[in-house]
Amino acid sequence: MKRLLPLVLMFPLCLEAQNPIINTQFTADPTARVFNGKVYLFPSHDINPPEPQPASIRDNWFVMEDYHVFSSEDLVNWTDHGVIINQKDVPWGNPEAYSMWAPDCIERNGKYYFYFPDLTKEGRGFGIGVAIADKPEGPYKLVKENIKGVNGIDPCVLLASDGNAYLFWGAGRCAKLKDNMIEIEDDTPTETIKFGDREMQFSGINCLKDLPNRQAEGPFVFEYNKNYYLTYPYVKDSTEVLGYAVSKNPMGPYQYKGLIMKEHASGCWTNHHSIINYKGQWYLFYHHNDYSPDMDKRRSVRIEKLYFNPDGTIKEVKPTMRGVGIVNALDKIQVDRFSSSSKDVKSSFVDLEDKFLGWAASLPQKGSYFIFNDVDFSKVNDGYVTINVKADKNTDLVIRENNSKGKIIAQTAVVCITDGQFKRDYTGQWLIVTAPLEYCPKGVTNLCITTNKGGLEVDNIQFKNREKYFSPATNSALNPDNDGFIRRWLLLEPISKPNPSNTVFVDSYLKKEFSEPDYRNLFSEIPFNNKKVKYKDQNLVWHKLDSENYNVKLFRFAEKYQKSVYGVLFSSITVINCDKDIENVRLAVGSNSASSWYLNGEEVLLMSGDRRMVKDDCVSKRITLKKGRNILSGSIINGPGMSDFCVRFIDENGNAVKNFTIE
Ligand code: FUB
Fold it and tell me: Which atom of ligand 1 is nearest to the CA of 271?
């Protein structure tokens, strides 16, 4: 398994996902809370044991050294605010225990109180500590001592409508908190429990006495319609279910009502959860071992919608990979986490070496389908769709609205180029196919991904607006941009030049390819918009476009016209009008990868090698832009990378030359 990027610890990152909702690290025991109109997630953080494995860590056990906080406004895109507490920071905790188990956080009088369990320094089992902050994402200041009289794990604080704060922990124990939120009331009762011939003292009262409570833990208590719901994981048969009990009083007695979620089919030993109402909808946050199917102590957080029956009982929640949230069609849609499917559709990891890359869904035969619900098309107009696929024979893919009989949104052939073998694109990614939209749905709808032939796997899809990177060039003359970059070009649809690597782009190769007569012929006259040309057996079209960026994103151009993105040769041409001769200027270019540039038919710059698109990467010798029309053209060739270029003229001092127009 790849180690996580250290950046995650320092900077907020946006993480996109369905279930599991966090795909950059393991997350477990999710406590979600709504603060300031946003959902904040306080999970615990499973990790693989450090190497060499410290003696303090049991084999095949939980390994948890810190806590992160995440937030989201749409339950789809999550920001990681980084680490708020590490085991080494806890004054009363064992810094080597790796036992930062399930936490909670609540807000009272403008302060955020974070409650967490940890093994004590003195080796007296688990204690529960508190850290306080002014903002949900911290920074948190640790209280020096753990809460006196409270031994155990899994704290949960209920701010009840009776005005009191109650601390629940362990197997359903409960005590009232003082107003300072860091101590329990002095008159909290204690109970002595016998374990064989050993006796142990427990403070608080046991709210799960006489209720199903085998190995109960992780209490989460909330209030709904004047009832208190004590929800908790316990072992019914062999692994944990989520059950619940209801009472009119925070401290019970509680009446058992049933299950919220059954055992995980995967055999994951634990489940742990929280329940919130966000924007009028109830949600269950829970965990599963999705990214670690062979080891259930590395878990990942999921979300599902939760519903009440009219009598206040909770409807059983079925775990799904789709999870919740409306997904913007312009974002990457992880359709492999579908809402429903034909029986033959299966999901499998994209890469067994890096399970955080997620899954792909297979469509084995004609008529196989899966449905991904709640996709928002309101920002899509004249769009196209890109689809990441893998296939071992020629097949097709059809995207319909709602179900397998619905209106066709887009369809495309999926062509395997090598015999019987799936051809990866040059970056080692899956093959990206693009298809224009035949019909653009309105608002939020469901997608049905299906096939007329079958035998392919689908990873993710993304809808794109054509005008995002380019708009059709207008008839009025254009100035270079503020930095002198030329953004108006006639671009020819890419010529296929399959090169599996950029190492071939040496001078001799480029000179041969770029000066080949059939190719040079394409530049013999200035093309017009939509001009069709033939190059060898390829029919191609010139497009007159304005680039929205200073760098002309050729790979987006190729994608836009559903052409190959990799292993291609791009051709560009533009006309520059000068009022007078502009002497001693240099052409300054950055391109990915190699390129060659001509001014008025004469080669002025050859950029060989495996290049990146860097501003002013190479400059020409001194040249003159003559009064009137100057024709500037370029050939840009690429292997496995994303092609783009930026072009401007600079003067003797390196300043942008801008006193011309682009026709
Ligand atoms: O994550 C460690 C422990 O596993 C939690 O504290 C329990 O609730 C169970 O999920």
Answer: 10
